[in-house]
């Protein structure tokens, strides 16, 4: 995906992104839906079904952090158009994730040949109204050459 | 849990922690297992079954961030012994999460009456060997008085 | 400052902010200049003189992190209008801080009665052109009641 | 420094590190002192003189973040032994920086050929007693090949 052809149409690009999501068993388990994708931008959604909740009826923080993790990675990967990995991120939870659906929107704020810095907002939708529930910022790194070894 | 009685035995404390995990549908979905719990310390594990993976066969970053999220919160909550919420955290992924099982160990490094700062290491266990795959640091806040309003 | 009167004029508010900056010896040492201040927003600048540089002629990362630290705190403090302290922040450096001047702009993205989450962009100005050199996100906390004790 | 000869004696290594600090005008302005340096480990200190303070008499948060910034970079650079740059870091302030001196100790927790993840503790020394005042975690990246261009 990340290294995808830059000449494809917007619809084909979105379809390619959906194939990537569909190939991630954990994204399927969580029920992630890709709603928009372009170079350096993604909108990823998750309907809040019961199995995603914690004891108080809100979506678990881990669902919100999953959304941030995946959305940041797609934003950086599509911006750089090379195979990437999420190097790190930081997330602030600002409101409980209450409602029918979570929407994560991430964008690449800066990118070069070796890394991208992306930001992500996660909104909870309740009765049709979006409320910010988390804010994230992270670094997406070009996958190191397989010939290089980590210690 | 977080506000639990401080006079309970270690076994009863662990049992109480397991009840909290069992009451979180998302933790059940992921298959989280509480292996150790004391004031300011937790060891939380997740066997890596297929549905937790991403397209390359590793555990998805969202599973690792779930572990950090939940472990940090328990470490802070048991240290402060009041109802808490995870305010924010930062995570660095240092190795792919490959293997049979993930182990998160979190501890409260500093805490006061209003917040705790905790760190968490996540290890992947492959062929019996633990390898560090992520490092996290976060802030756990005492739940604000329900009479206070957020804007 | 943070707990200042909300009825003051914009000019008086800015003047009050400048008094706070002038009362911080480290801000004076660095040469910080307050260019704009309103509730939840600040623009703080630093002319890059030689003593702020590192060995390669760029402004030292510590100058950039000082700007983020101070700007985030002012954005949160003026939004909440109570005495505050910077609880934590995260910063990504995206470009070397080269040029005549650094400009930090921070805003409160969300705030309640106990904390604010703010973001900050730091730009380097070279030959009149602004370029993003760092991106930060942090938590500003209401100063705990002095009767509460930290352990 | 970062790419220095790995065969040098501990004393020579420390002396090389002090030359780097002495070549950073901002480190000289702040009064940073290098007390220990080895591959993947550093202890950097700053005596708290009046110009480093904020309005309440504590060392300014920007001094603490400078220490974290520089210590993390040295820990990563000496671990990787190549020219590096601090990519990002996160810092939690847990206590006011009160006392005669600040001590930052940073270590490389994991490193490969392209990046290192390091942690740093900053202590304030008052009446001879060290108290933790901040906790940081960051990513140090190998300097990109000059032939690669950032956009």
UniProtKB/TrEMBL annotation, chains A, B, C, D:
Keyword Isomerase set for record: no
Which NCBIfam families does the protein's record reference? unchar_dom_1 (TIGR00369)
SUPFAM superfamilies annotated for this entry?
Thioesterase/thiol ester dehydrase-isomerase
Keyword rRNA processing, does the record have it? no
Q: What is this protein called?
A: Medium/long-chain acyl-CoA thioesterase YigI
CDD domains per UniProt = PaaI_thioesterase
Please report which protein family the annotation says this sequence is part of. Answer: Belongs to the YigI thioesterase family.
MF terms (GO), sorted A to Z: hydrolase activity
- Report the EC code(s) recorded for this entry: 3.1.2.20
Q: Which residues does the UniProt record annotate as the domain Thioesterase?
A: 57-129
Q: Identify the Pfam families for this entry.
A: 4HBT
Which reaction does this chain catalyze? a long-chain fatty acyl-CoA + H2O = a long-chain fatty acid + CoA + H(+); a medium-chain fatty acyl-CoA + H2O = a medium-chain fatty acid + CoA + H(+); a fatty acyl-CoA + H2O = a fatty acid + CoA + H(+)
- Which keywords fit this entry according to its UniProt record? Hydrolase
């Amino acid at each position: 995906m990340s290294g995808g052809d830059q000449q494809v149409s917007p619809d084909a690009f979105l379809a390619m992104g959906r194939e990537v999501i569909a190939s991630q068993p954990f994204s399927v388990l969580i029920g992630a839906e890709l709603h928009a994708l372009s170079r350096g931008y993604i909108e990823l959604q998750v309907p809040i079904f019961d199995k995603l909740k914690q004891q108080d009826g809100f979506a678990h923080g881990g669902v919100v952090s999953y959304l941030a993790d995946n959305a940041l990675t797609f934003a950086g990967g599509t911006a750089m158009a090379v195979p990437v990995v999420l190097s790190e991120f930081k997330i602030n939870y600002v409101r409980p994730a209450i409602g029918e659906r979570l929407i994560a929107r991430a964008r690449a704020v800066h990118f070069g040949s070796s890394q991208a810095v992306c930001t992500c907002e996660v909104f909870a939708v309740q009765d049709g109204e979006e409320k910010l529930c988390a804010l994230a910022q992270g670094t997406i790194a070009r996958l190191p050459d397989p010939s290089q070894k980590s210690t």
